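Progress against Task 2.4 (sequence-to-structure conversion) is shown through the following example record, which the project officer requested during the mid-term review.
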Amino acid sequence: MNYELQNNIAIVTFDDGKANVVSPAFIDSINDALDRAENQKASAVILSGRDGMFSAGFDLGEFKKGPEAGLALVSKGMQLLIRLYSFPLPLIAACTGHGIAMGAFIIMACDNRIGTRGSYKITLPETAIGMEVPLTMLELTASRVPPQHITRVAIQAEVFEPDQAVAMGLLDEVVEAHELTSRALEIAEKLSQLPQSVYAANKLAVRRHALAAMNKECS
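Structure tokens generated for the chain above:
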């Protein structure tokens, strides 16, 4: 995972050369980057994957270690989503490619979600693979996806291309691949002009019900 501070905007890029799976180490690295951004008093944070891949979700290798390891990873992932969704700084997802399962939830937890045009997919596949969606993730989804689309997104496990993902509420906009970084920086710089303390307070106020439900499920 790479961390760069550019014009006081923290750019966090993850690239494991494969699927950017969400492992315990991945979560620790994101938390370390968020800590670093806060300690350096960054004005905004951008989360980005590599070309063609944002994240394919939880590391299935952890689940193969047994129920204890699997539950520990899911719990750690839920805490990450809560931190992202309540993060005091403007948080922008630069979706560079596939956002699957936990990868899609990380995108949804960001304030602004910019994707590239391309033949990649964003999906919550839990129903299709025989898994129940944790309530923390459902609360997050319900707070970002319009009610008329929640069945298709969270229950029916539909697979969406970028433009469809915008219509479903999974992304806010899509741009050409070569424009993604500049667009994310443009948004980050604009949001950086807002009073940070008020931004953080209003974020918590607007999301208080969803966050309360998410925290209750994780307690």
